[in-house]
Amino acid sequence: MTQKRSTPLHLSNISGHHCTIDLRLGKLAMVPFFQSLSKSELREINKKFDVNHFNSGDSIYFQAEKATRLRVLVHGIIKLLRHSSEGKDILLDMLKPGEFFGTLSDLGENVYQETAMAQTDVCVMSFGATDFRMILKNYPPVAIAVLDITTNKLRSSHDKLHQLATLSVPQRIVHILGMLSEKFGEESEYGKLLQLPLSRRDIADMAGTSTETASRIMSDLQDKELIVSGRQWVAIKNPDQLKKLADG
Amino acid sequence: MTQKRSTPLHLSNISGHHCTIDLRLGKLAMVPFFQSLSKSELREINKKFDVNHFNSGDSIYFQAEKATRLRVLVHGIIKLLRHSSEGKDILLDMLKPGEFFGTLSDLGENVYQETAMAQTDVCVMSFGATDFRMILKNYPPVAIAVLDITTNKLRSSHDKLHQLATLSVPQRIVHILGMLSEKFGEESEYGKLLQLPLSRRDIADMAGTSTETASRIMSDLQDKELIVSGRQWVAIKNPDQLKKLADG
DNA sequence: CGGTCTGTTGAAGGATTTCAACACTCGTGG
DNA sequence: CCACGAGTGTTGAAATCCTTCAACAGACCG
């Protein structure tokens, strides 16, 4: 096994008092689907928001809970997962700042279909379902932007379905590492470092496999010198060869 | 094995000349996301549409083809599938009249991510990407309706991911039969008949398994008297017990 | 009436899970 | 400051589920 140093991740340990209302206006413009709005429109929307802080490991909301608020991630990383009765979870998505979650729909059940859990310390904005629908109605460009983002999420979900259905576990894990590296990758001394805490369990829950199998495959990739990994972190040492392995 | 009669499905063999422009106005109001529009607005939108007929087995568009038109299914059934390089497909969705497909997004690649194939003879309306975006912009309720539908598709895709990742093949197939029965089920002499041509291959491609395994499991369900099935058709004889099998 | 498509079934082989034991890391409290 | 315990990661071996290869039967089409 490779020797492992303590985590190379930069986890800016944001504490509760940094996650304040004052933070809002600056961040609001950063959210993709509000980019089409003017300053005065933003100010108007800004009044509707709440801001909350959660510690790493906390749940922002639970699966089957009544869905009343739409949320936007301001700082940190959040994972969306589904639980099953047998205790086997599946990790649907990893979110980074600017993404929204806890989506609401007039159709179907008004309960969250998944659990949102803080993967790091996080800061989250939220506002009420009715306020959100009002904004969609009054600002068509916002509705279109939200639609575009949702459409892309659907595509990505179809990608995952396709991978889960057609690829072997090692291939799925290689693909997952590739996708994570696009979203969270950052150059480092170890290669492309995935800037998020990521356990074997998380990887297993994304790939729909067991932690043991995920561990075995990660060890194998490490033996082949394609990745470097330690407790809760992964870096991709040789992205080209990893991509070759994913395709061929 | 149970003796099998020829198909009990009602396949109204619509031929090309029934699928005409004149059909449009009546069908347009049927499409969920146009329901919020007035007659005169519908007449306006109606001008932009094309109508086409396809035979069962035809492809309406292919994966990786440039995406230029949004389509609405008027008559018949369409399946959306993804191909993989190794020839193993996955069936993402089965559509019935009123549903739209070939979704466009300003973000990401402008190519279709899946192949749309006629499962029966079908009649399809379509219009250009720019026309569609114009409608979304000018009629906010339409944009919101499309968003709600897309959000629900995303939920359903997450459901499928969850099932694929956590359930055994028999459980997945039972769940798939349940979902299909909600969407296509119709009372018949055999029980709840799924009103669509459905091969073992289709079931296998939905469950992410091989046709042989799908066949074995269907035989097993038939032995247990939970379903009745023949060439390209399936009826659910005992929905309650099937549901119990899916949950427990 | 032959050919092709669909569905079925058996048997061998392989991939992955499961159970089990152990090693390492990190934070906490004695 | 060290020891402990919980959480995380690793590895082995047996068991299981599923795939794959193969052969064949029945249905539908021209």
Describe the overall structure.
The structure is a homodimer of 248-residue chains. Helices cover 39% and strands 22% of the residues of chain A. Chain A is built from eight helices and twelve strands. In chain A, strands 1-8-3-6 form a four-stranded antiparallel beta sheet. A four-stranded antiparallel beta sheet of chain A has the order 2-7-4-5. A four-stranded antiparallel beta sheet of chain A has the order 9-10-12-11. In chain A, helix 3 packs across helix 4, helix 5 (169-184) packs across helix 6 (200-207) and helix 6 (200-207) crosses helix 7. At the A-B interface, helix 3 and helix 4 of A face helix 3 and helix 4 of B. Chain A binds a DNA duplex (30 and 30 nucleotides) through helix 7.
Keywords for this entry:
homodimer, DNA-binding, 248 residues, alpha+beta, four-stranded antiparallel sheet
Largest inter-chain contact set: A-B, 43 and 44 residues
User: Approximately how much beta-strand content do the residues of chain A carry?
Assistant: 15-25%
* Multimerization status: homodimer
Structural class of chain A: alpha+beta
Helical percentage of chain A: 25-40%
Radius of gyration of chain A: 19 Å
Largest sheet properties of chain A: 4 strands, antiparallel
Annotation field: number of helices of chain A: 8
Order of helices and strands of chain A: HHEEEEEEEEHHHEEHHEEH
Q: Can you count the beta strands of chain A?
A: 12
What is the overall pLDDT average of chain A?
91
Low-confidence stretches of chain A: none
Shape of chain A: globular
Q: CA-to-CA gap between the ends of chain A?
A: 27 Å
